[in-house]
Amino acid sequence: MNRIAVIIGAVMLASCDAEPTGNTTITATRARMEPYVAVPPETLPRGTAAQRAALSPPGPPISRDLLAHGRNRYDTFCAPCHGVAGNGDGVVVQRGFPPPPSFHTGAQQALTRARIVEVTTEGVGTMYAFAERVPPEDRWAIASYIKALQLSQSFPIDQLPDDLRRQVEQ
Ligand code: HEC
Questions:
Q1: Is residue 98 in contact with ligand 1, taking CB distance under 6 Å?
Q2: pLDDT below 50 — which residues of the chain?
């Protein structure tokens, strides 16, 4: 019995010795370094010229279609944390993610569309960037919708046209 165990042990050790040959190739491949190419001065490292143009202010004019599209994209990508109404209480936050500030308070009300687009592109604090998932046109649509969301909660009722005010006050 003992002798068999010794033989099995010896065979296993032998196969251990044989392994590194296979591994060396993988390790050597992983270790190969690409030369570092510095970004030339006066150039922007990311995106094409068309993408950058799509991101520059003032952005597209606000229209009903743009807002409808923005609402659709906001509900998909932003509401999980910011909440459908922008109160910072989305389902991800209810599961423990650090809450974003409500869009209806303080400095958040003064956010410009351009700033919202910038934050969506680059991320901020604990919020990751959406550059890979949300194309620039959609970022403007979302930013426009967030501004509309803010207005929906803060527009002074006495400045509404009479017919709208009656509806709101009903
Ligand atoms: C995973 C959760 C999460 C998602 C999804 C998310 N955000 Fe945020 N967002 C946050 C958090 C958290 C903060 C606060 C970050 C901080 O200050 O550390 C924040 C902050 C912001 C701010 C405030 C920036 C400022 O200058 O104060 C804006 C604007 C914003 N998010 C827009 C968006 C938009 C637009 C989307 C959808 C494309 C989105 N967020 C999706 C979590 C999220």
A1: yes
A2: 19
